[in-house]
Amino acid sequence: AAFSLFTGFVFIIFGMIADPEPQITRVVEPGPRADPIGMPAPEFSFLTLTENNLAETSLTDYEGSIVVLNFWATWCAPCVKEMPDLSKLAQTYPDDVVVVCVSDETEQEVRPFLNRFESLAQDVGILKPDTIIPSEFYLFETIRPITYIIDREGNIHSQIRGARTFEEFEMAVLEVI
Fold this sequence. Notes:
The protein is α/β, with parallel strands linked by helices and 177 residues long. It is 28% helix and 24% strand. It is built from four helices and nine strands. The strands form two sheets. It has a seven-stranded mixed β-sheet with strand order 3-2-6-5-4-8-9, covered by helices on one side. Helix 2 (77-92) packs across helix 4. The relative contact order is 0.22.
């Protein structure tokens, strides 16, 4: 029994050395941690999951639309619960609102997770390795889900901490439509 336990530890250690996980670094940009409400949304780019690829995307790609920027994770139960409500929001206001859900997980973690949903109307993205998170979005590191409503002029209108329902998202969006 002791030999098999020792062999297991050797296997685990050797496996970690032989096939290490790629290191992904995400750093929050240094700077003041002021309330971002009313501030211009910072330049922020990520990779959007398309059917078979990843597409470089930036917040400026959505210029002129109301952007609902949601930071989420596959391991976050409240994040998962609100995904259909965010999709419903995008379907309800297709001419005015773009919903963008961004995770800091890998494509290999996010893509299979999304297959659980029949259809999602929102864009789903992942952070690029070595992404520097703009200081305006610093709460993303500690609170999930966290959602920012960005108006047509590119200013952060509101910040929603924690999971919400379709009706709550809709109320926040209607303030800027």
